[in-house]
Amino acid sequence: MKNYNAENNRAVWFDIPVADLNRAKDFYEEVLNIEVFKESVDGYEFCILDHKDGNGGCLFLNKDEISSNSGIMLYLNVKGRIKDAVGKAEDKGAKILKPIHQIGEHGFRSVILDSEGNRIALHSDTND
Prior knowledge:
Elements: H1 3-8, E1 13-18, H2 21-32, E2 36-41, E3 44-49, E4 56-61, E5 74-77, H3 82-91, E6 95-102, E7 108-113, E8 119-124
Parallel strand pairs: 1-4, 5-8
Antiparallel strand pairs: 2-3, 3-4, 6-7, 7-8
């Protein structure tokens, strides 16, 4: 975790529970247009989302923690490519709960269920 993130951001890391690590890795690589790295520590496999320029997170195997209808909602930045990201999400098995819509002066979002059934929001400053 970078010092800037630890010192300046309220959210510094996130864990996303998944049922299928490879499917989730593929989903997040495509939708976020980033690299996702598979790791193994003491025989436990997980994936780290590339975070060299910002906050980081990981995918971990635990289908019992997947939440599709309540709890904290994670907004993931798709950097000015929300239409492309939502299309790729659908292609990878996401269910669109709320299509792309403006959230006041804060940009645009689409609320989806990811490939594993987690409720997340894809966010962009623009509607491109």
